[in-house]
Design a protein that fits this description.
single chain; about 550 residues; Phosphatase 2c, domain 1; Phosphorylase Kinase, domain 1; five-stranded antiparallel beta sheet; 20 strands; about 35% helix
């Protein structure tokens, strides 16, 4: 049962020469409704030679268009903030180009209704109200100067300052909730009591929106009057997470053997088996096309949300650095699994175990490919959390593909699988052992360790066992194990695996550029951390012991 709303909107110019308000609404259907939700926005342009109308219309239209173009893996506040900051930069640039002729600034109040929740984005003095069980609540705060003579002057707005600060808030939806997005031409002359009466008394949102605008002008309003009314008719029985992961209700398949058929896929062989999952090579019987089917072992039903979340993320990564997930409708599956493209090849770990020697140029090329994949992942706000040679597949076509999003995290995800320190200890960044959250920088650390291990078969801080609490000094230079590693590559690896996150590469694109430039524009080799910084306690203990010994010697000499 999807989210259902009724809506209405109205705008009147009033005594002003032109209408500088603008409002808009998008009500998608199907998967887009589940993933992105309903978006509504109202803006009130700052008066000034036509610039106010231009600013308000541009802000609303851009938001309605670009929000739905953002990656599904972005959370709602992140997607709204990225779009609105881009709008702000454009208005600032246009205002600068037409200085002293056009003012391009506007308020904006927007709301996203998604699943069983709502998210608000707001700046300026337009407002968002909620009427619930007869009680009217203002959900936004006016951004005006706190002075009796300046309460009509905006302190914050889109296009007013290069640094845009939006207010964000969220909450639960309930059937019967009524939301009003209104400019000050409505709320200022009417007040809360009249607004509540109009919202409660009118039979449908369109009538309520029209009545509010007319009442605002009738009450002496001297500004444009705009109202957009949303009424929640029905909320989903389950939240967004459940609507996106309906497949978790499917049963787990039994152990499949070669020749078994499941939903049109014939099992060829068992490729891999872990503590909780199984991977099978299968072929689609209609075409003979090979695929990989991933599922859980029987008895692992509690991990079903994580598997569905993994498939959800993998489908949204549009890059040839990852296997492609085959879109399968839930009603086509008799069991819980997902299917991805099959690529012949071996993981880097298996190649190392087989005695494969990786040259300098080959390692650099693999690093470039790895950075392109991580860049694509991080731009979707996804952190892999388990980059290592065992999860890097070198395919027969020469491409490197990143495997296994089983413990990946995404801030806007419907399910954050495996909270805590997921990953393989020897490839985990030092800060993760102290409880810090995984980040793109910790992924880049793991990538650096992986490349280091390809070249040396060693680890920059030594091998770390599970449940061990390691102490990190300076990483061992790879040239200690392999003298032929050139200085430029050593500098890149040491920067990637630096103990301090601030000394590492900030983005995959930065590390990619360093690898592509190579010896032409080499990085400087990171300096070794002074002992006083690595282990201050040991230094001061040594100083104290030395001081005591010197004093004892002096005392002995005085006595003798």
């Amino acid at each position: 049962m999807p989210l259902e709303i009724a809506y209405g909107h109205a705008t009147l110019t009033g005594p002003r020469r032109e209408n500088e308000d603008f409002c808009g609404l998008i009500t998608p259907a199907g998967p887009e409704l589940d993933v992105k939700g309903v978006l509504a926005a109202v803006a009130d342009g700052v008066a000034g030679e036509g610039g106010g109308r231009q600013a308000s219309e541009y802000a609303v239209r851009s938001l309605l268009t670009d929000y739905y173009a953002t990656p599904d893996t972005w959370g709602v506040p992140l997607a709204l903030d990225r779009v609105l900051n881009a709008v702000n930069r454009w208005l600032i640039a246009q205002g600068t180009a037409h200085r002293n002729t056009v003012s391009l600034a506007t308020t904006l109040s927007a709301i996203v209704l998604r699943g069983r929740r709502y998210v608000i984005a707001h700046v300026g003095d337009s407002r968002i109200y909620r009427l619930r069980a007869g009680e009217l609540t203002v959900l936004t705060q006016d951004h005006v100067w706190d002075h009796p003579d300046m309460r009509h002057v905006l302190a914050r707005a889109i296009g007013l300052d290069a640094h845009l600060v939006m207010d964000y808030a969220d909450g639960e939806l309930e059937p019967g909730d009524v939301f009003l997005l209104a400019t000050d031409g409505v709320w200022a002359p009417l007040g809360s009591r009249n607004i509540a009466a109009a919202l409660a008394g009118e039979g449908d949102p369109q009538s309520a929106a029209s009545a509010l605008c007319q009442a605002g002008l009738a009450a002496g309003g001297q500004d444009n009057a705009t109202a957009l009314v949303l009424r929640v008719e029905r909320v989903p029985e389950a939240g967004l997470a459940d609507s996106l992961t309906a497949g978790r209700e499917l049963p787990l398949p039994p152990l499949l053997r070669p020749g078994d058929v499941i939903d049109g896929f014939e099992v060829v062989e068992l490729l891999h088996e872990s503590r909780a999952t199984r991977l099978y090579k299968v072929t689609l019987r209609d075409s003979g096309q090979p695929y990989v089917l991933k599922t859980l072992k029987p008895g692992r039903e509690d991990e079903a949300p994580a598997l569905v979340a993994e498939a959800w993320m993998a489908r949204r990564v549009q890059s040839d650095c990852f296997p492609e997930v085959l879109p399968l409708a839930t009603d086509r599956r008799s069991a819980l699994y997902y299917v991805m493209s099959h690529h012949a090849g071996h993981t880097l770990e298996r190649l190392l175990e087989a005695g494969r020697h990786f040259s300098i140029s080959e390692t650099a090329a693999l690093g470039i490919r790895l950075m392109k994949g991580l860049g694509a992942l991080h731009r979707l706000n996804i952190v892999h959390r388990d980059i290592k040679p065992a999860n890097l597949l070198l395919c027969e076509d020469g491409r490197l593909r990143i495997l296994d999003l089983g413990v990946a995290l995404n801030a806007g995800m419907v399910h954050e699988a495996g909270a805590g320190n997921a990953g393989t200890p020897s490839f985990m960044a030092p800060e993760l052992f102290s409880g810090a959250e995984a980040s793109p920088v910790s992924d880049l650390y793991a990538a650096g360790v992986s490349l280091y291990h390809l070249l040396t078969r060693q680890y920059p801080y030594g091998e770390i066992e599970p449940f061990q609490h390691p102490r990190f000094g300076d990483p061992v230079p790879p040239t200690r194990y392999r003298p032929d590693v050139p200085g430029w590559l050593e500098a890149i690896l040491l920067k990637a695996v630096a103990r301090d996150p601030a000394r590492r590469f900030e983005t995959a694109e930065e590390m990619l550029l360093a690898l592509e430039r190579g010896a032409q524009q080499p990085l400087s080799v990171p300096r070794r951390t002074p002992l006083a910084e690595r282990d201050a306690l040991r230094v001061w203990l040594a100083v104290a012991v030395t001081s005591i010994l010197v004093n004892l010697v002096l005392l002995y000499l005085l006595i003798v």
